[in-house]
Every structure is written in structure tokens, then in C-alpha cells.
TrEMBL record:
InterPro entries: ACP_syn_III_C (IPR013747), ACP_syn_III_N (IPR013751), FabH (IPR004655), Thiolase-like (IPR016039). The active site is at residues 111, 247, 277. The gene is fabH. This is Beta-ketoacyl-[acyl-carrier-protein] synthase III. Its EC number is 2.3.1.180.
Length: 320
């Protein structure tokens, strides 16, 4: 038994910050950002919260699946940027939706978060503990971004994406995942929850810090590797895959993965130009856009793949 996706949804803030505006904030240019990353603009939270975006994306997924919130068994939110530590974002989403029966919790695995949450939900459905699940990736990364650091602030954006899964005996799902904690220093964000009184009475806000070149090198080798592992495990060839839906971190990473796999770039849809890197939200936002454009037909095999802080990475196979 695995979960079939019966609804998708996404939601991004209205406020847009484009590369030209960003060039007035740090020493960079529209041309540099486009050429080095593929990003043209990003959506930034104004009045919105991570939970509110997550709930809006989830509501759209439920509407498409034609399911009432009271029928939802499990709500998982992948996020590193909930506005509150307590309650967890998933419980706030539950309240906003009125999903009174659901069990709710958050999962923190940065950009691989949505994929790991999807795997977790699949395990619950596979065991028979739950019959359905809402899996959401939602981020307000702009709150964790150092807007004076041109090495990171050009990359990130805010938004949310969601899928609704229903247990189905005929659907197919497989996964391969890895974590390499010894490489974790390449991408960090210190907790704002340290011993402020005893050790850091003058502590400043903390932000995401990244060794961009290290993360880039890691991504272009680990993503093709984990996709190959998945295809071998499932005895599938690349030709059998309709789309590779990759975490939108940098267009050059996506192009490099396509090349290393010997696959046409057309099979790797991108929307990074519009949203930047929205971490755990990037894969479900792209999935929802493609679904609503009618790009998938029944039986299509999709590979989802992501990498990120941890460092962690993974790939999943699903049949539409
Ligand atoms: N504008 C103009 N120049 C810049 C900028 C900028 N925004 N940023 C860096 N530069 C300069 C550097 O100072 C350097 O100048 P120098 O040659 O005089 O020293 C030059 O551009 C090249 O710098 P690099 O860091 O080598 O640039 P690179 O091509 O690697 O691009 C980038 C940097 C975009 C950050 C890239 O390394 C990258 O995308 N890395 C992966 C990031 C990623 O995928 N993160 C995932 C996060 S996942 C998560 O869990 C949140």
C-alpha cells in the first residue's frame, strides 16, 4: 500500500523582490544573479506567516482532491522557518483548516524536508496507521536571510506547496535517502534559542550562512548519484521517466544533473526564475504548477529529488 497524490496546491506571497531592487541593497547585478543562479525575482512575505501560506496551499490541495478538512488523518509540515517554535506549524495549519481529526507535526530537513516528509507520510500509509495525509513544504526564508550578504540573499524566496495523499493499493512509490552530517558546516543557521542570559546577553539575530561552492559541488555529484541509485533499485531506465522534478536551488545545478544523467533538459522543469530557492517548498510548488498546467497523465513516472542542509539528499519515484 502506498499513497497516491489526489490533490496539489501552492501559495506564494504577493510581494515581489526582483534582481534590480536587490542590486540596490547589496553589491550585485541582475545579470550576475541570472547567469550564476537563474533567479530573476522572488516572492517575499509581508503580512503572511509560514503557517498561513501552508494552510492556503493545503486548502487548494484538499479542494482539488475533493476532501473535507475533517477527513484528514495526518498533517506534516516540512519547514525550517516556522514563525513560532511552539505551537508547531502543522498544528496551526490544522486550526486554520479545521482538520480536527488530524495528527500534526513538523519536520526539519531544510531543502530535503518535503521529500523526507513525503517518505514519512508514505510509511504511515504503508503501515495502515493512517489512510491519508497532507504533506506540506512551507518557508519564510526571508526571515532567516542576511540581507547584507550577497552570497546568500540573492538565492532565497518564500512560499508553500502541498500534496494530499490517499492510500491506494495500486499506486507505486519508492525512495532512496542519505544524510552526511560530517558535511553539515557547509550550510548553517544557529538557533535563536541559545543560552542568551548566561552566554550571549548581547546576541544579534542569527542568519543562514553557506559555503556556496561546497554546497554546489556536493549537489552536482550527490543528486545524479541518488537518482541513479533509485532507478537501479526500481529497475527503470531514464527513458521511462516523464519528468525529473528537482529542488530549485540553482539552474546550473539542474543543468549539470541533466547532463550527468545523459537526459534532455526538457525533462527537468524549472521555475527558479520566479521564486528563487524556497527550500522545503520548492518541489511541491513546482509539482503543483505542472499538475495545474495538465502536464501529467495517469501512469506517468516522476522522479522527485532534493538536497540541502544537513547535508542530506534523496530521490523518490512516484506514479501519477
Ligand atoms: N553578485 C556579484 N558577485 C558575487 C555575488 C553576487 N551576488 N556573490 C558572489 N560574488 C562574487 C564572489 O565574491 C566571487 O568574486 P571573486 O572571484 O572576485 O572572489 C565571484 O563572484 C565568484 O564567487 P563564487 O562563490 O565562486 O560564485 P558561484 O559561481 O559559486 O556562485 C552561488 C555562488 C550562486 C552561491 C553558488 O555557489 C551556489 O548556487 N551554490 C549552491 C547553493 C545552494 O544550492 N544552496 C542550497 C541551499 S539548500 C538549503 O538547505 C537552504
Amino acid at each position: 500500500m502506498t499513497g497516491r497524490i489526489t490533490g496539489t496546491g501552492s501559495w506564494v506571497p504577493e510581494h515581489i523582490l526582483d534582481n534590480n531592487e536587490l542590486s540596490n541593497m547589496v553589491d550585485t547585478s541582475d545579470q550576475w544573479i541570472r547567469e550564476r543562479t537563474g533567479v530573476e525575482r522572488r516572492h517575499i512575505v509581508w503580512q503572511e506567516t509560514t503557517a498561513r501560506m501552508a494552510a492556503k496551499a493545503a486548502q487548494r490541495a484538499l479542494e482539488q482532491a475533493q476532501v473535507d478538512p475533517e477527513e484528514v488523518d495526518l498533517i506534516l509540515v516540512a519547514t525550517i522557518s516556522g514563525n513560532e517554535i511552539l505551537p508547531c506549524t502543522a498544528c496551526s495549519v490544522q486550526e486554520m483548516l479545521g482538520a480536527v481529526r488530524a495528527t500534526c507535526f513538523d519536520l526539519n530537513s531544510a531543502c530535503t524536508g518535503f521529500l523526507f516528509a513525503l517518505n514519512t507520510a508514505q510509511a504511515y500509509l504503508n503501515s495502515g496507521i493512517y489512510r491519508n495525509a497532507l504533506v506540506i513544504g512551507a518557508e519564510s526564508l526571508s526571515n532567516l536571510t542576511n540581507w547584507k550578504d550577497r552570497g546568500t540573499c540573492i538565492l532565497f524566496g518564500d512560499g508553500a506547496g502541498a500534496v494530499f495523499l490517499e492510500a491506494d493499493e495500486k499506486s507505486r512509490y519508492a525512495q532512496v535517502t542519505h544524510s552526511e552530517g560530517e558535511k553539515g558546516r557547509a550550510l548553517t543557521c544557529s538557533s535563536r534559542n541559545q543560552k542568551q542570559y548566561v552566554e550571549h546577553p548581547d546576541a544579534q539575530e542569527t542568519y543562514m550562512e553557506m559555503d556556496g561552492r561546497e554546497v554546489f559541488k556536493f549537489a552536482v555529484s550527490c543528486v545524479p548519484q541518488v537518482i541513479r541509485e533509485l532507478l537501479e533499485k526500481e529497475k527503470l531506465s531514464g527513458e521511462e521517466i516523464r519528468f525529473y522534478i528537482l529542488h530549485q536551488a540553482n539552474i546550473r545545478i539542474i543543468q549539470s544533473v541533466a547532463k550527468r544523467l545523459g537526459e534532455a533538459e526538457e525533462k527537468f522543469p524549472v521555475n527558479i526564475q520566479e521564486y528563487g530557492n524556497t527550500s522545503g517548498a520548492s518541489v511541491p510548488i513546482l509539482l503543483d504548477e505542472l499538475n495545474r498546467k495538465g502536464c501529467f497523465k495517469a501512469g506517468d513516472k516522476l522522479v522527485l529529488a532534493a538536497f540541502g542542509a544537513g547535508l542530506s539528499y534523496g530521490a523518490s519515484l512516484l506514479e501519477w
